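Thread: "does anyone have the structure for this chain?"

Original post by V.I.:
We have the sequence but no experimental structure in hand. Need at least a predicted one for the grant figures.
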Amino acid sequence: MEIKSAEFIISNTRIDKCPKNNLPEYAFIGRSNVGKSSLINMLTNRPKLAMTSATPGKTLLINHFLINKEWYLVDLPGYGYAKRGKKQQEKIQQIIEQYILQREQLTNLFLLIDCRLEPQRIDLEFIEWLGENGVPFAIIFTKADKLSNKKVLENVNSYLEHLKEQWEELPPHFITSSEKKIGRAEVLNYIESINRQL
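Reply from O.Q.:
Generated one for you, tokens below.
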């Protein structure tokens, strides 16, 4: 897939304020500091489309970007940022849950996981919740340039083995690096293949 245009449309906290048309939406979510904004900028080839921040956990809104005038890339708030107060954490959780469970246009959710880390309980619980609610999702392992190829594959396989304890069929997964543009074609081709079936 070639990205010919990528434009910011709207930010908000309520799904009734999201775009009204029925274009497919591909949402990106992950723990704070997983490299979500960098990944979005790499996929769209627009260095400043999603604001990257030195402070993790800055995305507090649902952000819609229209891609090729055909589908939306949706940047969701990061979860699990410890420095937020309990009230703000609950509010963000509510925004995330409402969008994921009630937004009919959500076609696929991409869950970002830092490939350098051991499986984190917060991610595993989130994956379980997606499964319980029948949400179609794929996993994107980020920051692959920070480790050797061998170590990346070891960590990813270890993660997938962990998931096999709960899942009969594993979700699709991709290995990416925003720095080196690894995985860009694979993720975009995956989106294109889903769009063709719609």
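V.I.: this helps a lot. The radius of gyration is 16 Å.
O.Q.: and The chain is about 35% helix and 20% strand.
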